[in-house]
C-alpha cells in the first residue's frame, strides 16, 4: 500500500512537471539561454557586439564584424572549424593568423588566412577576404566556395592567393589582374573556362598554377613576358603553338607543365634558351616536327617529357648527352632513329622510346602505321634551318638572345635558383595542398 501511494505521488509530480515544461522553455528562450538544435527552437544568441568586447588592437575590432558576418553565411562546416570564432581573441580563431603590419610594427592585425582543407561551404567570399585591410595571404584549398573571386586591389599588402580545389566557375578571375604585389596565384581544380588573359603574363608572378580547369584558346604571344619560376597549365584544353616568346624566360623559369592539352605546331627553337629549366612536360598534346638541337643547351634539365605527340625524324644525340637527365620520355611518337649515346640512355632506363618507328627496337608501332604517318601527315616546320642550331655553342646567337654574356646572366640568377626545390609543379596535379 505504501509503495502504491509513493507511485501515485511520483506520478502526480511528473505530470505537473510535464505540464509546466512549455512554460519553462518559454522563459529560458526569452532569457536567451542556448538549448542547442534539439531545444526550444528559438534563435541562438547573436555574437557580442564590438562595444561589448575588448580587443588587443583597434585593427582587430575593425575586422571582427566582418568575420562574424562571413561566419553567418557559411552553410556547411563539417569539421567544425568555425566553432572558436567567438570573442575578441581573433588571433586564436582557427585559420586566422596575426602579425605586425608594415606601417606600424607595434600594431596587431589579421595578416593571413589559411582555410586549407576546412571543407567550408559559402555562396561567396566577396565582402569578407577583400574587406580585411591588412590581409597579405589568403589560402583556401579544398573547400566548397563559389561565386565571384573577390577584388583584392584595395589590400595594400596582398601578395598570395590560393583558391584551388573549390567550386568557382566562369571566366578567368580578372579581379587578380593588376595586383602589383601578387607573386603567388593558384586557381587549379576549379571550373574556370575561356581564355587565359594576356595581362596575367605581364604581372610579376613567381608562381602561377591554373591547371585542371576548362581553359581553351591559344596561349597569348606575350606568354614569355612573365618572370614566373613555376608554371602549371596542364589538364586544360589549350590550343595553338607554344609561343616563341617562351625564350624570354631564360633566366627565371624552373618548372613548367603543359601536358594534356591540345597544343599543336612545332617545338620552337627558343625553348633551348631556358637555361634554368629543370622540368618541362608537354606530353599528350598535338605537337609535330623534329626535336630542335637547341634542347641540348638545357644543362639543368632533369625531366623532359614529349610523350604522346606527333614528333618525328631522329632523336638528337646532343640531347641525349645532357648530364642531368633523369627521365627523357619520347614514347608514342614517330621517331625513326636513335644514335649510340641515346641507346645508352635507353639501356639505362632514362630514355623511353616505346611506340615509335625505330627499326630494331622492341615495342614499336607497326610498319603500316608509320608509313601512313610519313606519307600523309608530315608538315614542314617554320624556320627549318634553326633545328640544327645549338645556340650555347654559337656565341653570337647566344648573346643576342640572352642579352649578355653567360657570366653576367649566371651572376644575375644565382640567388634566384639557389633555394629551388625539385618537382614542385608535379605536386599541383593532386587536388589538395601540395
TrEMBL record:
InterPro entries, per database record: Leu-rich_rpt, LRR_dom_sf, LRR_extensin-like_regulator
Keyword Repeat: yes
Principal place of residence: secreted
Signal peptide stretch: 1-29
Presence of keyword Repeat: yes
Keywords, sorted A to Z: Leucine-rich repeat, Repeat, Secreted, Signal
Cellular compartments annotated: Secreted
Protein name: Leucine-rich repeat-containing N-terminal plant-type domain-containing protein
Amino acid at each position: 500500500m505504501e509503495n502504491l501511494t509513493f507511485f501515485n505521488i511520483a506520478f502526480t509530480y511528473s505530470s505537473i512537471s510535464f505540464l509546466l515544461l512549455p512554460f519553462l522553455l518559454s522563459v529560458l528562450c526569452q532569457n536567451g539561454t542556448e538549448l542547442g538544435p534539439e531545444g526550444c527552437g528559438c534563435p541562438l544568441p547573436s555574437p557580442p557586439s564590438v562595444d561589448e568586447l575588448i580587443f588587443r588592437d583597434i585593427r582587430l575590432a575593425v575586422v571582427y564584424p566582418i568575420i562574424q558576418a562571413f561566419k553567418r553565411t557559411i552553410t556547411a562546416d563539417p569539421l567544425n572549424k568555425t566553432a572558436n570564432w567567438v570573442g575578441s581573441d581573433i588571433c586564436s580563431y582557427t585559420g586566422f593568423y596575426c602579425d605586425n603590419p608594415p606601417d606600424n610594427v607595434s600594431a596587431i592585425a589579421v595578416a593571413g588566412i589559411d582555410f586549407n582543407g576546412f571543407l567550408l561551404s559559402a555562396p561567396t567570399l566577396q565582402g569578407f577576404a577583400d574587406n580585411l585591410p591588412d590581409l597579405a595571404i589568403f589560402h583556401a584549398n579544398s573547400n566548397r566556395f563559389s561565386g565571384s573571386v573577390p577584388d583584392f586591389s584595395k589590400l595594400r599588402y596582398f601578395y598570395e592567393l590560393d583558391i584551388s580545389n573549390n567550386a568557382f566557375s566562369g571566366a578567368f578571375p580578372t579581379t587578380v589582374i593588376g595586383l602589383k604585389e601578387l607573386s603567388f596565384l593558384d586557381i587549379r581544380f576549379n571550373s574556370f573556362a575561356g581564355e587565359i588573359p594576356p595581362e596575367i603574363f605581364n604581372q610579376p608572378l613567381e608562381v602561377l598554377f591554373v591547371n585542371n580547369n576548362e581553359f581553351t584558346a591559344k596561349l597569348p604571344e606575350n606568354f614569355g613576358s612573365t618572370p614566373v619560376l613555376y608554371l602549371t597549365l596542364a589538364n586544360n584544353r589549350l590550343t595553338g603553338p607554344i609561343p616563341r616568346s617562351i625564350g624570354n624566360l631564360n633566366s627565371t623559369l624552373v618548372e613548367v607543365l603543359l601536358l594534356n592539352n591540345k597544343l599543336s605546331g612545332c617545338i620552337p627553337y627558343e625553348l633551348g634558351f631556358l637555361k634554368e629549366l629543370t622540368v618541362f612536360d608537354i606530353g599528350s598534346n598535338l605537337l609535330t616536327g623534329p626535336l630542335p638541337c637547341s634542347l641540348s643547351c638545357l644543362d639543368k634539365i632533369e625531366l623532359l617529357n614529349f610523350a604522346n605527340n606527333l614528333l618525328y625524324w631522329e632523336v638528337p644525340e646532343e640531347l641525349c648527352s645532357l648530364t642531368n637527365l633523369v627521365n627523357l620520355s619520347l614514347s608514342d611518337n614517330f621517331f625513326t632513329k636513335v644514335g649510340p649515346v641515346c641507346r645508352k640512355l635507353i639501356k639505362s632506363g632514362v630514355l623511353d622510346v616505346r611506340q615509335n618507328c625505330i627499326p630494331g627496337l622492341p615495342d614499336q608501332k607497326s610498319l603500316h602505321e608509320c608509313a601512313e604517318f610519313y606519307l600523309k601527315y608530315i608538315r614542314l616546320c617554320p624556320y627549318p634551318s634553326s633545328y640544327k642550331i645549338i645556340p650555347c655553342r654559337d656565341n653570337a646567337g647566344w648573346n643576342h638572345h640572352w642579352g649578355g654574356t653567360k657570366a653576367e646572366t649566371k651572376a644575375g640568377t644565382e640567388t634566384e635558383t639557389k633555394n629551388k626545390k625539385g618537382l614542385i609543379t608535379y605536386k599541383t596535379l593532386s587536388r589538395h595542398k601540395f
